[in-house]
Amino acid sequence: AQSVTQPDIHITVSEGASLELRCNYSYGATPYLFWYVQSPGQGLQLLLKYFSGDTLVQGIKGFEAEFKRSQSSFNLRKPSVHWSDAAEYFCAVGGMEYGNKLVFGAGTILRVKS
Amino acid sequence: EPEVTQTPSHQVTQMGQEVILRCVPISNHLYFYWYRQILGQKVEFLVSFYNNEISEKSEIFDDQFSVERPDGSNFTLKIRSTKLEDSAMYFCASSERVYTDTQYFGPGTRLTVL
To answer: Do B33 and A101 count as a contact with CB atoms less than 8 A apart?
Structure first.
């Protein structure tokens, strides 16, 4: 079955600390991978995406993610978290093997403590 | 920067009533989508639409749901007879192409069925 796993429901980090949010997908030889962020009451904003090529991709707001095919993972990282990064983060997978849709993970809620 | 817009931002309706959720996709995009997110749950795909017809739909998208592109700019989701379990945030998205393209999401419409 096509699924995306984000094992951490909640993560709390101190402002200025580094962050890594985990994402694993279950299916697909050539997945297209996305991270979206959702602030309270807001829509889904694209942070970054991976289609092919360099497995380390840079996104907006200082985020980056690394695709590791051997681990079926696409973890999101940020070297120094800001209070404004507090939000819910969703990993999603698409591509030809997923048809016309994106399959989303359950999301990880990030809390930032000052 | 072009963006997907949705109206209304919040809709409250009585069970059994019909609702129409409206979306204006990004103007040069050709593929349109609806997703929903029940409170506390994953974002789930409902339907994709291209060239004035449904290209894919999920099991959730039963006969109570329909989509339409009534003119050159709007894309609508109709729920004919709402149920309590239809209460959710509904997101519209659009993309220029399918499979290899990024889906851009609107801010969502929160539907509350009483």
So the answer is: yes
Measured between CA atoms, how close is B41 to chain A, in angstroms? 6
Question: Vertex A87, ends A84 and A93: CA angle to 5°?
Answer: 130
Spell out the SS3 assignment of chain B.
CCCCEEECCEEEECCCCCEEEEEECCCCCCEEEEEEECCCCCEEEEEEEECCEEEEECCCCCCCEEEECCCCCCEEEEECCCCHHHCEEEEEEEECCCCCCCCEECCCEEEEEC
d(Cα B7, Cα B28) in Å, to the nearest integer? 20
* Contact list, B102 vs chain A (CB under 8 Å): 34, 46, 49
Q: What is the DSSP string of A8-19?
A: -SEEEEETTS-E
Mean pLDDT score of chain A: 93
Any CB–CB contact under 8 A between A60 and chain B? no
Distance from CA of B102 to the nearest CA of A (A): 8
Give A23-50 pLDDT, tens digit per residue: 999 877 788 999 999 988 778 999 999 9
Q: Name which of B48, B100, B107 is nearest A42 (Cβ-Cβ).
A: B107
Tokens 């749950």, residue located: B41
Q: In chain B, what residues touch A42 (CB-CB under 8 Å)?
A: 107-108
- Give the nearest chain A residue to B42 (CA atoms): A106
A111 - beta bridge partners?
Answer: A12
* A47: Cβ contacts below 8 Å, ≥ 6 apart: A34, A35, A36, A37, A59, A60, A61, A63, A65, A76, A89
